[in-house]
Design brief:
protein biosynthesis; 15% strand; zinc; 36% helix; ATP-binding; nucleotide-binding; tRNA glutamyl-Q(34) synthetase GluQRS
Length: 285
């Protein structure tokens, strides 16, 4: 007897390094609406690997803001800061396969040597430490030099071969389309730092797999990062979700709403007398 197919699982995964703003509200409301359309469930995940910037009071504020918007989710809520050992294990698997190497270059050294930029506009790492001898690596690690661990993208792409992923749009119920991933444009991305056993790229693919995420809804600005995620999924033997990239909310100058640009928080809007219905209308949900 065949078992029935599992219901779709989506997720909203904010970082508690500040208060949520209207752009976050749009993404959350969009994800819950997409889950409803698919007959599935939306999970809340707290992406707090940056233990210096992420604060418990911002986690509490996330819960408060989302409940105010009328959203709920299954418990318990996954928090990445509880899972560092799991991410370190995934990184060890990559290292054991010869795909992770230590890099001792400073930001200024990388900027001076870079000959291009990655899709985010950051200097593209030229692979300087990839060719370092094992003896020098061991010496510098034992000396305690500042270090980060990078994916050997050339070896990883050679092992992975041609990579594709599935996209739906303009709505989550549209016909799936296949796109080709281009991880080479990211170069040797950082997956670990000495004081942090993971990165966004590594933790997100591990979490999506562990939570059984079937559909990832996120802003169009994150589409390029899917190149790296699909590559890591293949290397770690993890399933690849269906991806959907929604529009971004922009300010009057045409910039994406963001904490760093001081976009007005949901708490401020609530204090100004906004209702959840007004937030939904402003977000276009």
């Amino acid at each position: 007897m065949n078992s029935p197919p599992s219901a779709p699982v989506l997720r909203f995964a904010p970082s508690p390094n500040g208060l949520l703003h209207l752009g976050h509200a749009y993404s959350a409301l969009y994800t819950w609406a997409a889950a409803d359309r698919l007959g599935g469930v939306a999970l809340l995940r707290i992406e707090d690997i940056d233990t210096e910037r992420c604060k418990p009071e911002f986690v509490d504020a996330i819960f408060r803001d989302l409940h105010w918007l009328g959203l709920d989710w299954p418990e318990p809520v996954m928090q990445q800061s509880d899972r560092f050992g799991i991410y370190a294990e995934a990184a060890s698997r990559l290292r054991d396969n010869g795909l992770l190497y230590p890099c001792f270059c400073s930001r200024s050294e990388i900027a001076a040597a870079a000959t291009g930029t990655d899709p985010d506009g950051a200097p593209l790492y030229p692979g300087t430490c990839r060719h370092m001898s094992n003896a020098e690596r061991i010496e510098r690690l034992e000396r305690g030099d500042p270090v980060q661990f990078r994916l050997d993208s050339e070896a990883a792409i050679l092992r992975a071969g041609m990579l594709t992923y599935t996209v739906v749009g303009p709505t989550v119920t549209d016909r799936p389309q296949v796109r080709y991933a281009r991880p080479e444009r990211w170069g040797d991305v950082v997956l670990q730092r000495k004081d942090m056993p993971t990165s966004y790229h590594l933790s997100v693919v591990v979490d999506d797999a562990d939570q059984g995420i079937t559909h990832v809804t996120r802003g169009r600005d994150m589409e390029a990062a899917t190149d790296i995620h699909v590559l890591l999924q293949m290397l770690l033997g993890l399933p690849s979700p269906i991806y959907h990239f929604h529009r971004l909310l922009l300010d009057d100058q045409g910039h994406k709403l963001s904490k760093s640009r001081g976009s007005k928080s949901l708490a401020d809007l609530r204090a100004d007398g906004w209702t959840p219905e007004e937030v939904r209308r402003a977000a276009g949900i």
